[in-house]
Fold this sequence. Notes:
single chain; 301 residues; Rossmann fold; Glucose Oxidase, domain 1; 2 domains; six-stranded mixed beta sheet; 25% strand
Amino acid sequence: MKQPRFLKAGDRVGLVSPAGKVSAKEIKTAVKVMQSWGLEPVFGRHIFSKHFQFAGTDEQRMMDIQEFIDDIDIKAIIASRGGYGSARIINRLDFSKMRIHPKWFVGYSDITVFHGYLHSRIPMQSLHATMPKNFPDNMQGNASVESLRKALFGELTSYDLNSCRCYRSGEASAPIVGGNLSILNSINGTPGDIDTQGKILFIEDIQEYLYHTDRMMQNLKWSGKLSKLKGLIVGGLTQMKDNEDPFGQSAEEIIWEAVKDYDYPVVMNFPAGHQEPNLALYFGREASMVLREDNFKLEFL
Length: 301
């Protein structure tokens, strides 16, 4: 996959709202932090617009993103937040300039729609990472934001963690793809669907019912998305919900049941997703994972 160049001081980055609405106050901290990195944040013209729960109409959100895609002086496009709405505009955007002038597209959650489309249609690497709305007022020692900075400037090389849970040990080298489990299911079979064959798949989710989680994992299994992976990394499964009549398995147990008959390494509780920390991941970039019972190492190659 094409790799955008890493950022340097003086670069201009475009801030957009592809999905849910956001206020200037909510991203004030992020703007100051990016400026302290030497970057020049540029607001999309409709970034603070409101239309129902969206950040403006489909046309307004699409216009902001298209302008930054076409502007070769914008070196990265950073989504202000997730929510819902990316799927309403993705097929109307023209990414042809990105093929000539690749630039980082940054975000998670609903932004999985963009990750999938960029990987399958360009194909181009992207960055699964925290977003401006998530920047805390107290930035001291924030691992999510620091990992984003390192990733944007090409300083992120590896993670060495003892907090993950090993479900099947092993080693693998392959590009990382994936994102939010619900979104991956919603784009399954679309032009933005991801190719998981020979890849390390990352998934995470929030506030999903356990039976929904089971259905989504079975859908991925049925459609052949799980059988030929090189590895599986499961991030945050945050505030998952159950019915009054309990499903009977945890979210991790549901995922493990769907993949236990395969032979690739499976790690869970990786610190990324709708949680803190939400560590940055290069999507589409070759990575090496080494999983042992008490340690997980992920190196970007």
